[in-house]
């Protein structure tokens, strides 16, 4: 299972407020999560999505398109991927639990 953290930044929107773009992207993420192939968490600065690598990349690609669909002229997306294949069952929850057990 892969875990990716990504940030999508619409550029050329005419406003410093991006919450309407974030809300539209969130709706896409909810729809993708409802399909059962990925899970996501929205944070104040980025989004984290987990699932099979191909599905994760497809979701990031779909979310990257949302600002264009809303009229943005340019979009900058940064992605950080943790694709661990030596240990099964790695998830967002499992990674957090591992740290909490050590605290």
Automatic annotation (TrEMBL):
This is Thiamine-binding protein domain-containing protein. Residues 4-100 form the Thiamine-binding protein domain. Belongs to the UPF0045 family. Pfam families: Thiamine_BP. NCBIfam families: MTH1187 family thiamine-binding protein (TIGR00106). The lineage of its organism: Bacteria, Bacillati, Bacillota, Bacilli, Bacillales. It comes from the Bacteria.
